[in-house]
Amino acid sequence: MIRSRVIGTGSYVPKKVLTNHDLERFVETSDEWISTRTGIRERRIAVDDTPSDMAAKAAKAALKAAGISPKDIDLIVVGTVTPDMTFPSTACFVQGHLGVKSGAAAFDVSAACSGFLYALDIADKYVKSGVAQKALVIGVDQFSRLIDWKDRATCVLFGDGAGAVVLSAEKGQRGVLSCHIHSDGKHWEMLYSESPCPPSPFEERKATNQYLKMNGNETFKIAVRTMGNAITEALEANNIKPEDVALLVPHQANLRIIDATRQRLGLPEEKVYTNLERFGNTSAGSIPLALDEAVRLGKVKENDIVLFVSFGGGLTWASAAVRW
Ligand code: UT7
User: CB of 160 within 8 A of CB of 282?
Assistant: First the structure.
């Protein structure tokens, strides 16, 4: 059986660090409130990098880890809701930046914080069916361009970043075991941004409806319930038990959501990878950014079962199981 094996991971975050203490100067908040309510202590802000720059840098690192050339890639799928431009797609920019061969397929997927797992689901189906041999799957977002930096309820939560994986068509048991993607459009008002991204962070918008809006409290409750259910779906589909899972890499929105999900599964803390303390919620970037760190820290071994779960605007949610 042909599976999509993950043969390389990569990530990129911009250099500029914005700490909770820095935010205390913009809005009425405190490091204590942000860290106890969310687990976040600092985040990165892209000043010189566009989303496609970040995506290309993450992808370059993933290609290097995989030991293959951009010329080997025949499909690029990017999960993002903050593209450089309305069109062309971020994926086409990445293709140009990396020198991926002309004629490869490249497109974006819009699923907010679930963007990476949606992109993985699609790329996996291309690879498994034999349409693509080597695929780049990228998650990237630059929410600093969507945020109202005067709104303490949202500006403390998000950061900018990107992560990528390379999938390769290979025979055997290793690779993507399952992906499940879902949405419920009737709850779109929980988390949305009405207008396209302006070009740079911290830029004043003309109207307040141009900023990202979130009903944090309700989103929190739905996220806890939905992420738990999404993991159960992945476990049942693969006939595996929580104790068979070597590592859970969840969407990095809030440590309290992640902890509730972990406790529902009965997983010990060391089996759940988090890095939101340093990067905040990077939307579609969050899962592949955390995965790349976990891989580079040696937390994922050959044949380990790794689970992913996401939740975000749409509403969208998704899970994936991979035998490493
Ligand atoms: O990635 C996509 C999915 N997104 C999520 O999953 C995010 C889900 N939501 C959350 O993570 C949490 O709801 C938040 C972190 C956004 C908020 O935490 P909360 O415990 O739900 O707080 P709250 O919204 O109920 O607010 C509690 C209090 C309020 O004050 P009062 O009304 O009790 O006086 C807020 O005004 O905290 C106040 N508050 C703040 N105080 C200091 C809200 N934001 C801040 C802040 N600093 N930054």
Answer: yes
Active-site annotation holder among 20, 179, 197, 251: 251
| Domain span at 135 | 1-324
CATH number at residue 203: 3.40.47.10
DSSP-assigned beta bridge partners for residue 306:
247, 322
Ligand 1 close to Cβ of residue 38 (< 6 A): yes
- Considering only CA atoms, give the Rg of the chain: 18
Supply the pTM of this predicted model: 0.96
Q: What domain count does the chain have?
A: 1
Helix 51-66 with 286-296: angle, nearest 10 deg: 30
- Give the pairing type, strands 2-12 and 16-19: unpaired
Each residue of 95-122: pLDDT tens digit?
A: 999 999 999 999 999 999 999 999 999 9
Residue 82 CA to ligand 1 centre (angstroms): 23
